[in-house]
Please model this.
Amino acid sequence: MAMKTVVFANQKGGIGKTTTSRHQFWHFEEKGLRTLGIDLDIQGNFTRSLLNMAAENGIALPLDDFGRPALPETALRASGLFDVENKDQPLQVGKNTFLIGADAGMLDVERADLDEVVKAGQQRFKELADDYDVAVIDTGPSVSGLLVVALSIADFAVSPCKPDRDAIEGLMGFFTNVRRVAERGTNPRLASLGVLPNQIDRKRAFHRSTLDEMRQNWGDGVLPVELPERAAIDVAKDRPVWRTEAGTVSRSVAAKEMMAVCACISNRMGL
Ligand SMILES: Nc1ncnc2c1ncn2[C@@H]1O[C@H](COP(=O)(O)OP(=O)(O)OP(=O)(O)O)[C@@H](O)[C@H]1O
Ligand SMILES: [Mg+2]
Model:
């Protein structure tokens, strides 16, 4: 099977990119797919979760200055993905799961010539594609070269978004970037799967009306699922909400909702 790659992107910060990236990654893992997680956000939140998971899986890792599991020297880091000479391999974090973690070298990638970076990224990514079934890319907030690069190597894009004017504004910028990548001819394969409404509070009239408006105006551009604001999702950072301790009603509802979102995305990717 040729590797299929999904990127979670919206240049607005704090709207659920990492939360959905993690859960999609765990969903693919549980489907038995050989899954690669790629963290293109220098904040490294996705990397942290997968390193903690690796440590829990009994994988020996060096510790950083704070005593937390860290990327071994030899593991392929995100910046290495844009260097054609680099031959490092992703870190194994579970039985069938792998990580290309975020690193400070991404700041240099950010400053380099974008066309060169895209070319190198596409070449390196092609080399990796034979070894995995699926890849999940988490991206950072802000309009950056790394976002354009992520869109240049992915097959599918999903854009989590809160029902908030500033977040929707970020979405407009995101759509512009998707169009630019398509127009530049850098990645004709890229398909936008749509906006994923996140942190919805159905008790709030503003959330309901904003969501209705988004669905009316954008039709298929909005996925037919949504994620409510749930405490159980907020704390599920090192394992999926459906594998956190059972017991509360909100946790089991949140688990079902998150599973439905992951299954919907997976379906639309043809998996
Ligand atoms: N559906 C949800 N219910 C409850 N909390 C959520 C939900 N979605 C996201 N959060 C919380 O909101 C915060 C921001 O989410 P997340 O880190 O996924 O956003 P992000 O888009 O990746 O942010 P950044 O742009 O900084 O990378 C986190 O604390 C996360 O746990
Ligand atoms: Mg994030």
About this structure: The first helix runs from residue 17 to 30. The mean pLDDT is 93. The domain at 4-268 is CATH 3.40.50.300 (Rossmann fold). DSSP finds nine helices and eight strands in the chain.
